[in-house]
Each structure stands twice: as C-alpha cells, then as structure tokens.
C-alpha cells in the first residue's frame, strides 16, 4: 500500500503540472487537446479508485483492532492495489505530452481584398517573389515598379495564398502594413502596434515602442511582414522589427516605386513590369464587355487602351468607366482627352 501511495503522489504532481500548463495556454487563447482532456478525466477517476482502495485497506486493518484479520479480503485488496499501481504508472508515462498539452492555435489571418493577377508577365513575377519568400537566401525582399503596375495586387494575392494554407505553415504570423508617403518612424510603429494589438501608452517614446514591437514579434516566432507603399527607407531595428534571417525564418517584403531605398535596407530587388500589349488588350476587353467588338468601337477602344500604358490599374479604371458604352462619339472623346493629357490621367489614376 505504501508503493501505491507513492505512485499516487507522483500522479497528483504530474496532474497539477499539466493543469498549470493548460491554464497558461488558455490565457494565450489556447485550449486543452482532446488527448489531454481525456487524460485528466482518467486521472480524476484513478484518484477515486485509489482512495477507495486505501479506505478499504484502513477499514480492514482497523477491524477488531487487527486481532481478527480477514485474509481473503486482504488478498483481494492487495491484488487490486497491484493492478492500480500498474495503471497509475501508465498514466504517469502517458502524461508527458512532449508535443504540448493544447490544440494547435488556428492560424488567425485576415484575407485582404484584391483582384486576380492579370497576365503571364505578372504571374511570373508573382512566382519569383513567392520563391524568394519561401527560400532562405534573401530575408528582405524589395518589390518595385511604377505606380499602378500591380505591386500591391501581387503581394495581396501572395499574402492571402500563404496565410490561408492549412499545411505546411511556412509562417506563424502574417502582418500587412500600408506605409504611405507621410509616415515617419513614430507613425510606422503605431501602425504595426495596432496590427499586433499592442497597447501603446501616450508617454511611450520611440525606444519604448520599439521594445514592445520587438518582443511582440519575437513571441510570434516566424513572421512575414509586408510593408506596402514605402516612400523612404527605415531602419528596421529602430522601428523594433527583428532582423529577418535564415536562422529565425522571418521575412520582410517591401513594395515601392523607388528602388533606391533597397540598398540601405539590404533588400533584394524584384521589378514588377507592365503588361504586354496583348495582355493589356485582353484585360481591357474583359472589363469593357461585348460592346468592344463593334466595328465602330473596336479601333477607338484600342486607342483608349493604348493610353493606359499597359498599367493594370489604369486599364481597370478607364475600362470600368467605359464598360457598356456603345456610343462611338464618347469613345472618340475619351481617346482625345487621354492623348491630350499625354498620360496625365494615367498618372493621376495610379497615384
């Protein structure tokens, strides 16, 4: 019976450790795995069985102050005790849970609204970026190209495809930040803090914010951080972003019109090029619709499409405004306006 008591104490200690691990995981949004829940229930049942056996033993020992022992009952209790010792040992062994005590947290991601990638040219660029993101050679990747060429569209498609994968998970965390041209270190830090749900105090200085961001990203282990629409370089350490490396498996992707910021940030440059003439025309036709096949409209539509300079965003904007228009005079006016503007409208709609 002493052996059974010793095993019981070991089991209780293991049980308490598992419960503490589960409670800690719950504070972080996790939940006990089905295997752990079943084990805890078995331990609870085993504690009752052991207590009942110990009580029976004490009652037998105290019967007639031990002068008239019931040997049959003692042998029965002894046999039961031996069986329980084996079962308790098995529970202790099964309670190691080397792979953790909680269910894997669901990958929390927000798919970004975007349009499909258009054309073989853009698809090849997407594949190149994808390969570098999943590879180990280039931890910081810079995606550059003129406004409206499709940098954001490509990166949003990559973000959504990666973040919604069930297996294998290449990253533990996906962060998308739209930087824009008026952002300094303070604003960038606050954008990242908002995305990571970090509480920033009003009196936090730049170093305080950097420390909080750094620790929050470290806890997320392997992260993919996409800084979209960069207009100037930033020191990642100054912002609080851990330097991505082959060792930590993290990646940072920048998108910008200005390739010049990549050198100081040690980013590998990938250019997003405009569509080919054929790709542009096919895309434009798809947006405008069947009216474009009219013999009075088609040649005018080609002139309008040409003024979009093979830029997907310009084609989408202009094509959308001409969708279903079957009046040749309207097409002539649109073509004339775009030509007179000498690309000014194209630059405006791509800003």
| First-to-last CA distance | 81 Å
And the CATH topology of the largest domain? Rossmann fold
What would you call the shape? elongated
Portion of residues within helices:
40-55%
Strand content: 5-15%
Q: What Rg, in angstroms, do the CA atoms define? A: 33 Å
* Spatial ordering of strands, largest sheet: 2-3-4-1-5
Regions with pLDDT < 50 over 5+ consecutive residues? 344-351
Task: Report the order of strands and helices.
Answer: HHHHEHEHHEHEEHHHHH
Strand-pairing-aware structural class:
alpha/beta
Q: How would you describe the oligomerization state of the chains in this entry? A: single chain
The count of β-strands is: 5
**What is the overall pLDDT average?**
86
The description of the largest β-sheet is: 5 strands, parallel
Per CATH, the class of the largest domain reads: Alpha Beta
CATH superfamily of the largest domain: P-loop containing nucleotide triphosphate hydrolases
Q: In total, how many domains does the architecture comprise?
A: 3
Instruction: Give the count of helical stretches.
Output: 13
CATH architecture title of the largest domain: 3-Layer(aba) Sandwich
Keywords: ATP-binding, Coiled coil, Nucleotide-binding, Plant defense
GO molecular function, one term: ADP binding
InterPro entries: AAA+_ATPase, Apaf_helical, NB-ARC, P-loop_NTPase, Plant_NBS-LRR
Domain AAA+ ATPase: 137-276
């Amino acid at each position: 019976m002493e052996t059974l008591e010793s095993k019981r104490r070991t089991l209780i200690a293991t049980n308490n450790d598992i419960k503490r691990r589960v409670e800690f995981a719950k504070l972080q949004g996790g939940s006990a795995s089905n295997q752990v829940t079943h084990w805890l229930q078995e331990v609870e049942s085993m504690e009752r069985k052991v207590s009942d056996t110990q009580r029976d033993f004490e009652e037998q020992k105290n019967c007639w102050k031990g002068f008239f022992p019931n040997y049959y009952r003692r042998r029965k209790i002894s046999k039961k005790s031996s069986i329980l010792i084996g079962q308790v040992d098995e529970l202790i062994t099964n309670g190691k849970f080397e792979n953790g005590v909680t269910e894997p947290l669901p990958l929390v991601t927000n798919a970004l609204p975007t349009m499909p990638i258009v054309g073989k040219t853009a698809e090849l660029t997407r594949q190149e970026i994808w390969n570098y993101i999943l590879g180990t050679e280039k931890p910081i990747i810079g995606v550059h190209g003129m406004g409206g060429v499709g940098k954001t569209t490509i990166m949003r498609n990559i973000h959504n495809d990666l973040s919604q994968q069930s297996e294998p998970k290449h990253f533990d965390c996906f962060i998308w930040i739209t930087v824009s041209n008026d952002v300094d270190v303070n604003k960038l830090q606050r954008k990242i803090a908002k995305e990571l749900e970090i509480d920033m105090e009003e009196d936090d200085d730049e170093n305080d914010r950097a420390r909080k961001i750094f620790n929050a990203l470290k806890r997320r282990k392997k992260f993919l951080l996409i800084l979209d629409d960069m207009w100037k370089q930033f020191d990642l350490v100054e912002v609080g972003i851990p330097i991505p490396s082959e060792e930590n498996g993290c990646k940072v992707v920048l998108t910008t019109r200005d390739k010049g910021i990549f050198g100081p940030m040690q980013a590998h440059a990938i250019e997003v090029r405009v569509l080919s003439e054929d790709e542009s025309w096919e895309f434009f036709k798809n947006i405008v619709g069947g009216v474009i096949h009219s013999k009075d409209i088609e040649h005018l539509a080609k002139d309008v499409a040409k003024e979009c300079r093979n830029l997907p965003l310009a084609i989408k904007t202009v094509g959308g405004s001409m969708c279903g228009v079957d009046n040749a005079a309207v097409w002539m006016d649109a073509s004339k306006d775009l030509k007179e503007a000498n690309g000014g409208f194209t630059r405006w709609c791509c800003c």
